[in-house]
Amino acid sequence: MNLFSLVLVNLGRNKLRTILTTLSVVVALFLFCTLRGVLDTLDAAIRVGSESRLVVRNAISLIFPVPLAYRDRIAAVPGVSLVSYANWFGGLDPVDPRDFYASFAVDGETYFPMYARDVEIVAASPPQAQIAMPAGVDPELAAFMAERGACVVGERLFKRKGWKLGQTINLNGTIFPGSWPYVIRAVYHAKDPAFGEESLIFHWKYLSERGMGGQGTPGWYVVQVADPERAGDITRAIDAQFENSPAQTRTETERAFQAGFISMYGNVPFLIGVIGLAVVFAILLVAANTMMMAVRERTAEVGVMKTLGFDDGTIFRLVLAEGAIITLGGGITGALLAKFLLEGFALPNNILPPMTVSWMTIGMGIGIAIVMGAASGLIPAWQARQLRIVDALRRVE
Amino acid sequence: MALVEIRSVKKVYQRGTEAVPVLDGLSLEIAQGDFVVLMGPSGSGKTTLLNLIGGVDQPSQGAVMVNGEDIGRMRPRQLARWRARNIGYIFQLYNLIPVLTAEQNVELPLLLVKMKGKERKSRAAHALGIVGLADRVRHYPRQLSGGQEQRVAIARAIVSDPRLLLADEPTGDLDRKSGEEILTLLERLNREFGKTIVMVTHDPHAAERAHRVLHLDKGVLSN
Asked: Rounded to whole angstroms, how far apart are CA atoms A204 and A217?
């Protein structure tokens, strides 16, 4: 036996109480790390945007389109190397409308070359006929490029739905009414998990012809700049071009654009953080109360140990160690459970990237567990330290 | 030189605003190897005197010298170490730790000194052998009789080989037979191992085992 095993023996006195207290700390830290994980995920969604890509949208709001005629004028701005455009489709699965996933109409010829570094095609239908592929487009996308009603879907969505290549699926349009059939011709894998694999991407021309009478207008443009250092100048140059036009533009980096989306959540991130801390604080009180109860029950024993020669400091450390083992053990378990159970978990709206619980969050969780251990054990440890032997023994004699 | 020397000790407890004197200018010497019994009515200050000798409590006035050291002047940490080395305490209700085995209870005071685990175990086994419980090392207090529990407590008191054993009514919670066994054991520790013993008791029969019987009344020695 040594002092550490003495601490363990004391923890084993009331196994049920120790287990329940530890579990409460596990749950608290699991919840804390889960809630922080949501914030991490929002943060990752911002980070996926590039500083070398700009997004040009209508200055009034994203819901107003930008004329197609702007494409060539934007491309002509010095420093712009590539221009693509897209629209939010917002279709619903007719079988399960609550299982929402993002759907976009994109100009495939420019969109896939622009995002070639972010995604790779991992499965594709063979092309029905030989076609001339636009420069920079993955040859694997030949079947997609050749067919107006084709679509490319994220690997995760593809697996989750149990789809097959060549399968026709339908979406009910919310902005563009009607039932929209798509043939799955390729599956993409996001090289950065934060990019997300829960999207369906189809031809912009399909949307324009079927939903906008062939006179489609893009929802936004994505602009690749040759030199990110010049992004500021290019941003101003693009907006200046359309300053006096009916559809003024607002240009910003893709990262800032993504951050704008996140800002729509308002104070939710703040609330999430506060709720996480409140949960931890509530459990801290429970743990502290349990520790105080456990030590109060052993008042006479503390007196006996002091009589045997255990000094106040040793008694203080022994009691503190009990609290630390419960909170640190529970805290690390809860934090790691959050990391390994929730990492990659799809958030309900399927727009945000898969859940990520950063190591920074785990570190914060463990840090909080240490503080909890100190705080919950401090009061009972201090009480035990201050206890006079004669007072302690009087309670039993 | 006396092992224990108490000089004009006063002890006053504060009960709210009221000061309650317990020992009133008491002086006493106890020689090395002595077996002294403290008797007296409840509230006469027997346990308080025992606590002062054991460094468990501090006098309000006067000095308590043990083996030439003024323990009243020691700082709390220093005093705790001194207790671990010099005092073996035996309580009326044994006060064993219920979640520890007999061997672990006896080992407890040895955790405070630098000693290998093997040696600690060996010393604990030896102490349990002296009190006649070599076959009960793995037993928990709840698996022992009152007399056996008290013998484990005595093994715990002697395991660090202190010179002074302080026993506060060690037979008070035992039947006659077990009480006799404990007294015989204490006598043996005094005679064979040279332990100086100070025992508080109400039992005149137990007092017969001592070399000296001191009567306390209202905080002063009456004989």
From this structure: 10
Q: Could you write out the three-class secondary structure of B114-173?
A: CCCHHHHHHHHHHHHHHCCCHHHCCCCHHHCCHHHHHHHHHHHHHCCCCCEEEEECCCCC
pLDDT tens readout for residues B45-60 = 999 999 999 999 999 9
Distance CA A310, CA B83 (A): 9
Whether residue A287 contacts residue A372, with contact meaning beta carbons closer than 8 Å, is answered with yes
| Residue A146, CA distances (Å) to A13, A112, A128, A140, B1 in order | 73, 14, 8, 11, 111
CA distance A384 to A195: 54
Tell which residue, A262, A263, A268, A264, has the closest CA to residue A353.
Answer: A262
Nearest to A396 among B57, B95, B120 (CB): B95
- CA-based nearest residue in chain B for residue A307: B56
Residue B36 is encoded by which pair of tokens?
């002294």
Tell me A96's DSSP state. -
Q: Cα dist. B58→A196, B22, B25, B79, B168 in Å?
A: 72, 13, 14, 10, 17
Under 8 Å CB-to-CB from A168, ≥6 apart: which residues? A181, A182, A183, A184
The percent of residues above 70 in pLDDT, for chain A, comes to 94
Mapped onto helix, strand or coil, the DSSP state of residue B18 is strand
Q: Out of A12, A309, A390, name the one closest to residue B99 (CB).
A: A12
Instruction: Note whether B80 contacts A390, CB cutoff 8 Å.
Output: no
pLDDT at A397: 44
pTM reported for the whole predicted model: 0.70
Residue type, B99: V
Q: What is the nearest CA distance from A282 to chain B, expressed in angstroms?
A: 31
Nearest to B4 by CA among B103, B107, B86, B117: B86
B82 contacts in chain A (CB < 8 Å): 309
Q: What are residue B22's phi and psi, to 5 degrees?
A: -115, -45
